[in-house]
Amino acid sequence: MHIILASGSPRRRELLNMLGVAFSVRPSQADETLSPGVRPADAVVDLARRKAEAVWAQLDEAERPDAVVVAADTVVAIDGDILGKPQDADHALAMLKRLRGRTHLVYTGVCIRTAVAEEVAFAKTQVRMRPRDDAWLRRYVATGEPMDKAGAYAIQGYGSLLVESIAGDYYNVVGLPLGLLDEMFGRLGLPLTALGPSV
After folding, report:
1. CB neighbour list of residue 40: distance below 8 Å, 6 or more residues apart
2. Is 73 one of the annotated active-site residues of the chain?
3. pLDDT tens, position by position, 111-125
């Protein structure tokens, strides 16, 4: 079996490495355009499936029998609106101002594709942000960390200083809900815990 992570995200690579899972990386070039008004849960499930299918389509016939493609997509949602990655520093600051002192939701969709099956699901985590002032937020944006993150913050980096509390899976906010991933592998008859190094 050959696990292929359909993502260029260093956070997702770090999480799989943390589990000791052997995998290769093949970033997806799937179209990530969303329809206006799409619900966050539907959006992440659709995007994860698109990413998995795009990478699966790139595999040659010899690779497919043993391939297990894992794709994920994460968004932040507040007031029913989806906040993706900021376009620039001003956009990042506007996102952070909208989130501060409030509770928002983080959704991650996961798709696992094999030669015989496809499993798709999503996780949802509630995040409460501290009421940081404008100067603090500007300093955070100046670090550059928010620029490739959904919602313009990284809970595993400097952005952890923005977070007051969470309810749900921490790893979902990082970008890959590991407990859900293990359950999905289990439903496919591929226990994730059996894929790590022998002990």
Report:
1. 75, 77, 82, 105, 107
2. yes
3. 999 999 999 999 999
